[in-house]
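Practice problem 4.
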């Protein structure tokens, strides 16, 4: 399925940069052999992840709590009986998860290629190297620091096109009894809720237990446990160990069965998904047009990466949205990728309530609703497109 020409999802730009903006054909395909859903073409990793990277993990309180619990669970489950453990996290960003290990004095290392976010972590005393992880970096880490007990990754494994090198790197890096724990947006939730906005340049893959199992089976590692998560609109946490070293929990077979029932292994499911995407696109743009035809104002809320797909695929422009309110300093004062909608400081939302607000940050709905209660009290209405296009009551 092609979503057409797309810009870099996190490429928020100045007006002077409009004529140099990079676009690529955003097409996604399903591989019947490895069961992976993946982008066909993608910008180079350095074009997306660099010293001006615009996503800061700490922008959500809900996610900060999630990562505190994630760190605590891993410590309790896998590190209690290990003396002097060593933990490595890739895509550690501003240190949102690793700081809980650093605070406990646990030996740790973050691998984070985006220098600006890595710097925030370093300033908090979190050991971080600015690199793209791959097999050869794993070998260097083993040389310099020794093998790790735990390998962690959140919302990064599915971002890396050379995924086989990553899997091999994990194997090289871990001690024989070590464990890799990672989570990413889950294909099952994307299919269930038609959240096609999870497809954008950074998301090379949409994982399922089937595709992750296939990936690691090629290097004699296996999925020993899976745990669904309610983050980012529905994610899955995978636990991976060397083959035969740890018992395989029931959750794996159970989730594989769920995936067969959902049709995640058959091409027809994706034909149906494509039709739904096309329908949702028409419904959303028609709703925005209907609102505008009544001379009502609409603003976007949260300039998420996902919104780049929604905006550019649905043909949303400055005719529909006055601006997008957001909390990230590096995005404020710039323009959204592709459609060039102005990004405005969220603090100004309450001074200029629009009639309608399009909720691009639906995965942060509870956090946003809690702090924006006055918007509704002042007669404002939320528009959502997950799991259906509608005005919230
Ligand atoms: P949020 C990013 O996706 C990119 P995004 C990446 N590819 C990925 O997979 C996930 O993160 C992990 C704003 N916001 O978290 C701040 C508000 O304005 O859905 C940010 O600009 N007000 C790595 O970008 C944006 O939302 C708020 O109250 O889709 C972050 O969006 C909150 C909570 C957020 O991630
Ligand atoms: N784990 C955090 C950050 C996710 S953003 C969270 O869940 O909130 C994805 C991060 O992965 C970015 O900071 C990006 O710079 C980093 N990244 C991208 N490719 C990488 C690679 N090959 N190795 C390590 N990190 C990578």
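Answer key:
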């Amino acid at each position: 399925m092609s979503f057409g020409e797309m810009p870099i999802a996190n490429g928020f730009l100045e007006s002077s940069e409009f004529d140099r903006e990079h676009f690529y054909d955003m097409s996604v395909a399903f591989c019947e052999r490895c069961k992976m859903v993946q982008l066909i073409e993608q910008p180079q990793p350095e074009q997306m992840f660099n010293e001006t990277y615009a996503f800061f993990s700490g922008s959500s309180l809900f996610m900060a709590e999630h990562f505190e619990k994630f760190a605590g669970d891993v410590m309790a489950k896998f590190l209690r009986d290990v003396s002097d453990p060593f933990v490595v996290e890739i895509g550690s960003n501003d240190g949102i998860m690793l700081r809980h290990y650093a605070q406990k004095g646990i030996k740790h290392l973050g691998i984070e290629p985006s220098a600006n976010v890595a710097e925030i972590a370093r300033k908090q005393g979190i050991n971080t190297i600015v690199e793209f992880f791959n097999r050869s970096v794993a070998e260097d880490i083993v040389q310099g620091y020794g093998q790790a007990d735990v390998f962690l990754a959140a919302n990064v494994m599915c971002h890396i096109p050379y995924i086989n090198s990553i899997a091999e790197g994990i194997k090289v890096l871990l001690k024989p009894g070590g464990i890799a724990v990672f989570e990413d947006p889950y294909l099952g939730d994307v299919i269930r809720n038609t959240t096609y906005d999870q497809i954008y340049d950074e998301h090379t893959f949409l994982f399922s237990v089937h595709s992750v199992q296939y990936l690691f089976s090629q290097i004699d590692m296996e999925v020993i446990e899976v745990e669904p998560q309610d983050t980012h609109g529905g994610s899955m946490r995978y636990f991976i160990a060397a083959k035969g070293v740890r018992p395989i929990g029931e959750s794996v077979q159970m989730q594989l069965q769920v995936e067969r029932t959902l049709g995640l292994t058959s091409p027809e499911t994706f034909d149906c998904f494509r039709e739904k995407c096309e329908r949702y696109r028409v419904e959303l743009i028609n709703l925005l047009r209907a609102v505008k035809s009544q001379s009502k104002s609409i603003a976007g809320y949260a300039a998420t990466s996902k919104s780049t797909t929604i905006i550019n695929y649905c043909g949303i422009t400055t005719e529909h949205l006055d601006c997008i309110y957001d909390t990230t300093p590096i995005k404020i004062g710039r323009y959204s990728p592709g459609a060039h909608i102005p990004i405005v400081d969220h603090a100004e939302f309450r001074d200029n309530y629009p009639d309608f607000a399009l909720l691009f940050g639906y995965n942060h709905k509870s956090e946003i609703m809690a702090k924006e209660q006055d918007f509704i009290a002042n007669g404002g209405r939320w528009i959502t497109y997950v799991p259906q296009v509608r005005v919230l009551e």
